[in-house]
Amino acid sequence: MSGPSLMDSLFQRSLEDIIKGLRQQLIGEQAFISKALEEIRKEIKSTDLSTKSTALLKLSYLSNLHFHDMSFAAFHALEVLSSPRFSHKKIAYHAISLSFHDSTPVLLLITNHLRKDLNSTNEFEVSLSLQCLSRIANVDLARDLTPEVFALLSSNKLYLRKRAVAVVLRVFEKYPDSVRVCFKRLVENLENSDPQILSAVVGVFSELACKDPRSYLPLAPEFYKILVDSKNNWISIKVLKIFSKLAPLEPRLAKRVVEPICDLLRNTAAKSLLFECIRTVVTSLSEYESAVRLAVGKVREFLVDEDPNLKYLGLQALRIVAEKHLWAVSENKEVVIKSLSDADPNIKIESLRLVMAMVSEHNVSEISRVLVNYALKSDPVFCNEILGSILSTCSRNLYEIIVDFDWYVSLLGEMSRIPHCQMGEEIENQLIDIGLRVKDVRPELVRVARDLLIDPALLGNSFLHSVLSAAAWASGEYVEFSRNPLELMEALLQPRTSLLPSSIRAVYIQSAFKVLVFCLHTCFVQGGSIVPSASLNNLPAGVSASVSYESFDEISVENGADVTVVHGQTCASAPITKESIVNLLNLVELALGPLLGSHDVEVQERVRNLLGFVDLTKPEVLNSAVQEKDDSEGKGVETSKVIKLMHDAFSKELGPVSLSAQGKVSLPDGLVLKENLGDLEMVCGDLEPPSSNTFSFGSSYEEKDGLSFSNPQIKEDSEQTNESTSLLAEHRKRHGLYYLPSGKSELVSNDYPPANDPTLQGDIDDNADNLVKITAESLVPKRKPNHGKPRPVVVKLDEVDEKHVAMKKPESRDDSLSGAVRDVLFGCEDVPPTLSQSNLSNKLSSKRKGKEKQHTDPHVESKENVIDDGNSSLRRKDRSHGKERRHRSPRKKNVEERKETNQKEKEKSRRHHARHKSRQRAEEPLKVSAQTPVIPDFLL
Amino acid sequence: MIKAVMVMNTQGKTRLAKFYEYLPVEKQQELIRGVFAVLCSRAENVSNFIDAESIFGLDSRLVYKHFATLYFVFVFDSSENELAVLDLIQVFVETLDRCFKNVCELDVVFNYSKVHTILDVMIFGGQVVETSSSEIMKAVEEISKLEAASNSIALIPKSASGWRSR
After folding, report:
1. Residues of chain A found within 8 Å of residue B164, distances taken between Cβ atoms
2. Which residue in A has a C-alpha nearest to residue B143's C-alpha?
3. Is B83 within 8 Å of chain A by CB?
4. What is the pLDDT of residues A862-900, one digit of tens each?
5. Labelling A470: which of A61, A242, A571, B43 has CA 20 to 30 A away?
6. Can you list the pairs that A43-49 forms with residues at least 24 positions away whose Cβ atoms lie under 8 Å?
């Protein structure tokens, strides 16, 4: 053995050799590393521990800094760990903490090594082992090594004790039951006078309190003492962290700590502690006006400091204050706005957020003006950051803060012209959205759109294409507000539109179609003012099968109204004459002719539509241009009717549609959604009590089958009225309530039964939607009456339930941790010790009891007793309750599911759970009232 | 809690990486690259913070310091104070400086184990346990002594490193 091993060791490269070698390899680094790895794989199998450990060290190095996997060496690391030599152990522990994780197979084998080293007399060996434990501990390790950690918690070596304290964090997290063993000792360490120990303990508590602050309220007196007495900044910071979590839970505690914190604020010289005080005040003590004032004063010092770090943190603190005390920001407005041009991107963004926090409906236009100016000056990234935040702030809650939409629309237009602007899509959405939602802004919108469309330079900027598409759409849709439709038409057909992507080009063509129809229609109305009545007279002759008298009548009346409006407007601007129409038609043919052969289907199709329309109308227009309103001959009427129909089709107003509208449409009778999911029924049948489910499935099937046959007929019927206007009108009539009210004029009737509850849920979530609000609000109380109404069963919901179960699982551990902490803190020594811990904890609890009596002063003790008497019964219930809840949790999900899916309530089992739940509710208030008074009594 | 400590040079080469939760090496590399990409784009004399949430996920903050050719980066969550961590970087660098007498990048490169030892004395499982540079030095020296002693026990023929060091 010694022979080859000696040779091996003799010629083995050390880590230093590897590092040197790597530094010399300028190009072939990878090759060098893979060669080294090959060596390592050989060396690591050596029986000589020195060779092995050197190989392991080299491997760790390559894994740590060159990111090579080292999981293959897991077992070898354990072998090295068993070496008696410290240097080997150190290498092994380093390797283990780099590479081991919960699913490392050899993890099971490490327990004894760790235990041995934890009991070692060499404090550095112990510390290596603790360090490793803090990194790799899983449930088993934490459970098995709890006794050792417990012993170390009172070690007389500072070096070990503070590390033992720190490792507790991981042990608690992985194995909550260890709380029962270790917690008292951990708390005892809070009274330690050594700042290092104290720092470690407070650090651990600040971590614990982050996750579940309420459980640590009883320790408030100890923390308070530390807060007042501590001279160490690090400890003070951690205690402040704890209080910022505890104070919001207990107003009396907040009242108590606000003074000491203010003292610290005034007196400390350390910036870190000062900042922590500020943060604590502004996050957790914001209702104490004087404290906030003091803190804001200190924030101002930060803001004007040279150090960019302080400035940045100051701005951050200000942003937290802004949520409740906007005045703090306004007071520092100048600094904040000045910071917008700071060199540091962090500071710029932070101040931008603050500026946006100041925005209200009164100052939005000024602030936006300032910001747009900044955007013009700044680099592309920040420019878009600014634009993005303006857009999102202004559109918040459906443009809540915008009063003057004309101004906002022109701002949008202006923003899209900023050179670096890349927010095209957002601007596009908002332009269209505003167009749909706000009636009054449409003239201005068309004006802005025209300005954008008419500028040939903009077509070259690909970031603006989506804005242009919105502009094109708006100008087509709301062409009646246009001053000069002819000009618009030229803009839409200008040669540079060839630069647009075809999807947007299609929008342009469609808009051109709309504009053309509008021009023709206006021209006809202007040309022959008798047209409406004439066409009415002629109607009987020309009526097609598709149009009924009434509908046509209705439409023409609407037209009359439209026309007068249009008349008033177009009169002011360039009049549309027959000649201009002819020119227009020629222009369309000229511009779009080449596109007939476009490769893009969408473009091609729309061009064909448009040119077809031109073909249809052109002869007649030419005709009438010559004849000058000669007579109302049959053919002319035909064409004008077509124009009229097209115009009517386009002049129907589109309303915005609620996101959940689809969900609210009841399932059409003929639609069988569950056909392919039929076999799911069997799966579900296995999972659920079969009675009700199968029943509901069956019933829904029957319904579907019965009705699906009658459906095609209905469809055919409706298809006969094959005409766009009437279809649209009909659609609106039938589904009118799924459109949002376009103005606020029409009130939506609310008593429509929603298709199923989940969408209803979604509706409530959508509540931000101002326009939906009316609907949503009225739906909330309607929930119960829905029970009675029949609704389709949706299979998917079962999936949702399962997800719920899965999601809840991880929580249980946390619950058990805080549960354990509470048990210990509220003095539940009568816990029936469970698991393997029984012996130990029995011993400990008796020990603890003794100690407690010594340590606590009589005052506190008596209080505790009082509480104990009052609460013991409650507490017991509480705990058992907790347990019950834990193992009942999957069933609880059922209750939730019942709530959610609004299933039929006939199932007995579920009722049963519901009763459970209500009982639980009844107990809860008791629980709270029992707990809260416990804490402050220590304090006051 | 401190989530990670990294040291990298201005070329983006990792000089030290320590993650206090297990991460696969690929993920480590990805994170370090992500951090470096942001670091190298930042000017001098700006604040020492980076928005880390885009790289490390929610509730993470990042503080870095730039010394000569090295970036020292600490990643942590909301239970640490930013300025305190900044001081901690200072302590770390000071300790390195005391340990190596005018520390430079090469010292960090060639003393892989020692740098890790220093860091381990300072930060334990993500918790800061030692903030005094002289205390750290004391512990590190003792550990080094112990290592040397344990090697010299079997100095005679078994270990080649023993031979070489003569």
Report:
1. 14
2. A124
3. yes
4. 444 434 444 444 444 444 444 444 444 444 444 444 444
5. A571
6. A43/A8, A43/A12, A44/A73, A44/A76, A45/A76, A46/A5, A46/A8, A47/A1, A47/A5, A48/A5, A48/A8, A48/A9, A48/B158, A49/A79, A49/A80, A49/A83, A49/A85, A49/A88
